[in-house]
Design brief:
The chain is built from 11 helices and 21 strands. By secondary structure, the chain is of the alpha+beta class. It has 2 domains: 240 residues, Alpha-Beta Complex (Naphthalene 1,2-dioxygenase Alpha Subunit, Chain A, domain 1), CATH 3.90.380.10; 114 residues, Rieske [2Fe-2S] iron-sulphur domain (Rieske Iron-sulfur Protein). The chain has an 8-stranded antiparallel sheet, covered by helices on one side. It has a 7-stranded antiparallel sheet with strand order 2-11-10-5-4-3-6, with no helix packed on it. A 3-stranded antiparallel sheet has the order 7-8-9, with no helix packed on it. Helix 9 crosses helix 10. The two termini are 24 Å apart. The structure holds FE2/S2 (inorganic) cluster and fe (ii) ion. FE2/S2 (inorganic) cluster binds next to loops.
């Protein structure tokens, strides 16, 4: 798991980026289906922040790898995760975020589970022949906290996230942690309340992974960021980290100028952080923005091959000054403008890549994050039957070639 730092020119800086994904990866529902077991069920999925589960017994339901997962704060202060399905007749146990309680009680017939998922009782249990409580605990799911964010993984053998992402905590850990507090009402686990964009989830991740479109698509960012120094800092097997310093030149827009003037770091950040915006992608779909004045954590959850929900939440640190709070409000507003611009772009990309004749062109070195992501996706899907040249699906594909 070698990290490759490329802030100073080196051989990697001059290498051609890996090729982009072929159009079918974004449009074929069979590929979308294969991604569930081959990508989402084998990777760490962001579900919430530790602050969403402060009290013992607090619990919430979140979407991960095509299932709903129930995450709880356990008696020992740790976390547990289970599939959100009762072992009796399959009722969904928790919906949304629910108040703390000592146990997990099914709202249908009252089967009751400990926070660790063990079945402790069923009403009138003498009426249930063969009730083997030991065999009827909730289905366990791996759960970990990393940078204060809570992730689950359906793969029992998954490498711990902190190991997979070695180096990331050192680079951005000082922005994050369990003591962050959410700002506003949006929450990472709130899929129903999330914005939906009209694109495949990978189009959204691709878009996040490069700054090449900034000069054309984001005039405000172009006025604020030092584009020449907008760079991919670390490309690791499991994550990408990039950053851009803020420009010193005052923006022509008064709102942005005010931001430049008041930009101030949260407690715990350095003076250098005050002038830098950083972004991280943890493969496959966790997207983290680290600003001097707030942190934004979000995820891209496909709801169809051409639709993606992007639930997320803003966070700040206790002890933040009024000046930093003002900077945060201004920055979040600028972020919404950028988001709207991106939403339009990703829907245009989705439209275009569905054209049967489309073959991706070469990527810029500024898009090497996109190449990294494409390589990871290709590797994970390499054995998918619908991507085999002789497979039954291939004869129905619009083109005979694929990457
Ligand atoms: S379905 Fe849960 S107790 Fe019956
Ligand atoms: Fe963008």
């Amino acid at each position: 798991m070698q990290s490759e730092t490329v802030t100073s020119p080196g051989p990697a800086d001059h290498a051609a980026p890996a090729p982009a994904l072929a159009g079918r990866y974004y449009t074929d529902p069979r590929i979308a289906e294969e991604e569930v077991p081959r990508i989402f069920a084998r990777s760490w999925q962001l579900v919430c922040h530790e602050s969403d589960l402060r009290e013992t017994g607090s619990r919430l339901a979140a979407w991960a790898a095509g299932r709903e997962v129930l995450v709880v704060r356990t008696e020992d202060g740790g976390l547990a995760a289970h599939l959100n399905v009762c072992r009796h007749r399959g009722t969904r146990l928790v919906s949304g975020s629910e108040p703390a309680a000592k146990a997990i009680r099914c709202p249908y017939h009252g089967w009751t589970y400990r926070l660790d998922g063990t079945l402790v009782g069923a009403p009138e249990n003498r009426q249930i022949p063969c009730l083997d409580k030991a065999a009827l605990g909730l289905h366990a799911v791996r759960v970990e906290s990393f940078l204060g964010f809570v992730f689950v993984n359906l793969d029992p053998d998954a490498v711990p996230l902190a190991v997979q992402c070695a180096g990331l905590a050192e680079a951005v850990g000082h922005y994050a942690g369990p003591d962050l507090t959410p700002v506003g009402r949006s929450r990472i686990h709130d899929l129903a309340g999330a914005e939906v964009q009209q694109a495949n989830w990978k189009v959204v991740v691709d878009n996040y992974l490069e700054g090449y479109h900034v000069p054309v698509a984001h005039p405000a960012l172009m006025r604020l960021l030092d584009y020449q120094r907008y760079e991919c800092d670390v490309v690791d097997e499991s994550y990408v980290l990039f950053q851009s310093p803020l420009r010193d030149k005052p923006s022509s827009n008064w709102f942005e100028r005010l931001y430049q003037k008041v930009a101030a770091p949260m407690p715990g950040l350095t003076e250098a952080d005050r002038r830098t915006w950083r972004y991280a992608v943890i493969y496959p779909n966790t997207l983290l923005d680290f600003y001097p004045d707030h942190v934004l954590a979000w995820t891209a959850i496909p709801t169809a091959q051409d639709r993606v929900a992007i639930p997320g939440a803003f966070f700040t640190r206790r002890g933040t000054t009024a000046r930093t709070r003002l900077a945060r409000r201004l920055n979040i507003h600028i972020g919404w403008v950028t988001n709207d611009e991106d939403a339009e772009l990703v829907s245009r990309v989705q439209h275009g890549v569905a054209t049967p004749e489309f073959e991706p062109g070469p990527l810029s070195r500024r898009e090497r994050g996109v190449g990294w992501f494409a390589d990871r996706v290709r590797a994970d899907l390499r054995d998918a039957p619908c991507l085999q040249p002789s497979g039954p699906a291939d004869s129905r594909a619009p083109r005979g070639t694929f990457r």
